[in-house]
Known about the structure:
Blueprint: H1 3-6, E1 10-14, H2 19-29, H3 34-39, H4 46-57, E2 59-64, E3 70-83, E4 86-98, H5 107-121, E5 126-129, H6 134-139, E6 143-144, E7 147-154, E8 167-171, H7 176-188, H8 197-203, E9 213-218, E10 224-233, E11 236-244, H9 247-258, E12 266-271, E13 287-292, E14 295-298, H10 301-307, E15 317-322, E16 332-337, E17 343-346, E18 352-357, H11 358-365, H12 371-376, H13 384-393
Parallel strand pairs: 4-5, 11-12, 15-18
Antiparallel strand pairs: 1-2, 2-3, 3-4, 5-14, 6-14, 7-12, 7-13, 8-9, 9-10, 10-11, 15-16, 16-17
Amino acid sequence: MSDEIRKNLEIRPVTVENVEQFNDLLRYVFQVTNKDLSESGYEEGEIERAKQPVLEVSDVFGWFNERNELISQIAIYPCEVNIHGNIYKMGGITGVGTYPEYAGNGLMHDLVKIALNHMRAHQQWISYLYPYDIPFYRKKGWEIMSDHLTFELKDTQLPKQVDVPGRVERTEIDDGAIFAIYEEFAKQNHGSMIRSQLNWDEYWRWENEEERMAAVYYNENGREDGYIIYWIANDVFHVKEMIYLNQEARLGLWNFISAHFSMLDKVKGHIYKDEPLDFLLDDGDIKETIEPYFMARIVDVEEFFKMYPFEDGGKDIHFVINDPLAEWNNNTFGLHFDEEGQLEITHDAIGEEIVCDIQTLTTMMMSYKRPSYLAKIERLKTSHHAIRVLENIIPIETPYYSDYF
């Protein structure tokens, strides 16, 4: 960007007063039309009102031109997520966009650096985002951390009814039982969002509320152990999300779906964890697809390590990290576990060396990809012994993440 252009631009916080410009930029960049909004159940002006609460709680930064027009923006949405049983404050990156006539001038590069500094100052040691451009965000330090699986099965492939002691009841989508089930599920499942009411509101964004339905599985003692969010259209049963706390609830919810046999031609649905459905069905010859879903980025390596629930302490190792934007992460991080298994973090080169970039460190610590695999594809530079240490101290559970913002 030339000095002449830069002197006519100003970078500053985006406030609620800018909500119309904020949404106009998003709608332009992501090509959201009035027809799209109408089909999603929004009336004129409603999307701006719906997004205002997000702006009120988020920290948004943008570039403004000499006419005080918002031309580039990034929003940090404050959330909480479960990282292997510990609750981290998470900075959700959203609302990212630049008008095309200003693209290619490094505006977003500057905004991302501001966002990283802001998240660090607010103790958000991890950041998530939905990537519209995976290579772009990889260059900024984010890496894939979860998958989105879709499945499709014919009515004849529905599982047979299985006797379970509980029952399923249809209910409203805002039934308190659904919130309670998800809360318990999120605290048990690595990667999950701990949903506030605003997070739930965003969870429903862009969907026609008149089509949504819900059902809850209750065990024989009346405890709610699972739910399904779904809708039925054109002889297809669509599963938005199925959450269960145990296998009894899973079977009960599939009994509920199979009970619609006479109404359906197909069942289509979504899974947000590395658990393909085919293995669980009698007829596993179904259509399944998998694609990357969310990306994550460690904002501050040292602080992230301090909260991380490493497994039984191993021998000393140290990381040498390369971070393209967060200079505080370009350092050596030694992990020393004392006799009681307590972690001490130093900046000394103790034990064996592990060299990687922030992207690789993130996907490994999120357990999306294992150390041995990352070493095999040469994303980790270290010894075989250090890989064994990492395999022992990094929990195995892969992330579950079904939200969107």
